[in-house]
Amino acid sequence: MAGFKLPSPKTTAVVSVLGGLVGLKKYDNYKCDQIRDAFKREAQVKAQEPLGPFDMPSKVVVYLTPPPGDGIHKSRIFFREYVKPIFDAAALDYDVVEGSEAGDVHSRVAEELKQRRREVIQSENELPSLSSPSVPALPSQQPPNLAKQQNPALFPKIAIGRNTWVEVLNGLSEGATESLKVAPEPTPELITDATDAVVAPTTASEADNMTEPPATTTPVVESDTPAIFESAASPSPSTPSADTTALAPPPIDYDSMDRGVIPPLPTLGFINFQNRVGWTSIPRRIFGFFHDAPQVQTIGAQALCIALERQRPWNAATDGDLGTEDNTVHQLSPDDVMPLVMESRVLSLLSTYERPTPNDKEAATFD
Over the Cα atoms of the chain, what is R_g? Predict the structure, then answer.
């Protein structure tokens, strides 16, 4: 005991501060786990529901875009830590679609809905389908709701963050009201002309060499195939095939056959995502690192409403403004805010998921 010394005041202060910070983080992790487990228990009720022989598990499409001033990896981390555990507990099937640049999600959503409108016109007018032909199923083998359950345009769409929400809404409005004209594909003739172009020689010697090409010998390949079949199996390269000479069918004028009827629209869901960046947000980020339980509770309640499929009609007065508080956190100027442009007749057909109430948030309590 003679060699034992008390630590110095500086050492005691450092150890006390570090111990306090570690204790705060451990306690916050404990609270987050308790809240997350409470939401998981509620979501498991959906996973335990029985399915019919022709029923498919519920499926949604989750859209991610880079938050303002940051990369797409922040959106991936946010979804994995706050939303994915609730979806997994509810056995909710989902596809994650990432938009690397602004407008990618907008274009994808609009094209899916336009394709859905084209399919409706094709079925009404008995037009040939644009997709590859397949063997039709027998009437007794095809469930009545199978087409609806497998159509990507009808899967509920979940937007993470305000910018993603605006892109999804703008894409739905464009896909439901804009022209159905299909962009023409490049013709094989143009591609052939570009590949057959010959660069002119730059010197006289090169020009002389090009006037008389060197003789080449064609190697003879031994084969057991009779000559009568060889001529049929290997056509002359100069002879065009029937596929290249056949005329392509004229494009279908979908706009002339469009009656202006909007097909059923998918249910929309929104989850807040506030990504703090910049020097001024460092104190708030440090505080959030040691006090993350409120965000786990808020986002978990929003994800639970989606997992349990709590749907309601669209509220034009408030639903379009969801996530506007995120723009304040991101410190966006009015010029940087993405505008929302929606047709009124599209709004009347939309539905969305319920937003969590204070009672829903208080349900995730712990002892």
Answer: 31
Q: 304 near 337, Cβ under 8 Å?
A: no
For residues 152 and 95, what is the distance between their CA atoms, to the nearest angstrom?
Answer: 10
On the CB side of 191, CA atoms within 13 Å amount to: 5
Residue 135 lies in a domain: no
- Determine, yes or no, domain membership for 217: no
Tokens 């409120």 belong to which residue? 294
Q: Is 321 inside a domain boundary?
A: yes
Beta-bridge mates of residue 94: 60
Q: Structural domain tally of the chain?
A: 1
State the maximum Cα–Cα separation within the chain, in Å, rounded to a whole number: 108
Q: What CATH number does residue 269 fall under?
A: 3.40.50.10330
Positive or negative: CA dihedral 57, 58, 59, 62? negative
Phi, psi of 325 (to 5 degrees): -70, -20
pLDDT tens digits, one per residue of 136-148: 444 444 455 555 5
71-118 pLDDT, tens per residue?
A: 899 999 999 999 999 999 999 999 999 998 888 999 999 999 998 888
Q: Tokens representing 121?
A: 């016109």
Range of the domain at 91: 17-45+59-127+151-180+256-362
